[in-house]
Amino acid sequence: MRYYPVFDNLFDDFFTTDAQGTSSVMKTDIVEKDGNYELSIEMPGVKKEDIQMELKDGYLNVTASHNTDKEDKEGRIIRKERVSGSYSRSFYVGEDIHTEDVKASFNNGELIVTVPKEAPKKIEENKFIPIE
């Protein structure tokens, strides 16, 4: 791109943000379905073992690390747009949600997390009232 410096600068910010100016990392769709919230989180290029989820103080924290440190011994790199690093998102799911209530699966670069809309209600045991 030595002869077209303007063309090279045109795409500097194109790949780091989308048309709305938001980051293109971990885009999430949230759908209400069957009394649950279903989060579909895009994680292209991330391996299942590089994803961690934690439920703390009512927040579901999702963290993923991505490493693209591959040496190219065949030629000189002109432009490198693949990034390495750690990404995270937090979602407030409520104080009454417990770790065992959250379900997750990962397939083809998409993490699907299911969180109950309401915390499961505990069944109250029948307690007899003494008569005095």
How many H/I helices?
Answer: 1
Overall 3D geometry? elongated
Low-confidence runs of at least 5 consecutive residues: 1-22
Q: How confident overall, as mean pLDDT?
A: 76
How many strand elements?
A: 7
For the report, how would you describe the main beta sheet?
4 strands, antiparallel
Distance between the termini: 93 Å
Radius of gyration: 23 Å
Topology pattern, helix = H, strand = E = HEEEEEEE
Helical residue percent? under 10%
Strand order of the largest sheet: 1-2-7-6
Q: Strand-residue fraction?
A: 35-45%
Structural class by secondary-structure content: mainly beta
From the structure above, extract its key features:
about 130 residues, mainly beta, four-stranded antiparallel sheet, three-stranded antiparallel sheet, elongated, disordered N terminus
Describe the protein in words.
With 132 residues, this protein is mainly beta. Helices cover 5% and strands 36% of the residues. Strand 3 and strand 4 (59-66) form a beta hairpin. It has a 4-stranded antiparallel sheet, with no helix packed on it. A 3-stranded antiparallel sheet has the order 3-4-5, with no helix packed on it. The chain has one helix at residues 5-10, and strands spanning 28-33, 36-42, 51-56, 59-66, 85-92, 103-107, 110-116.
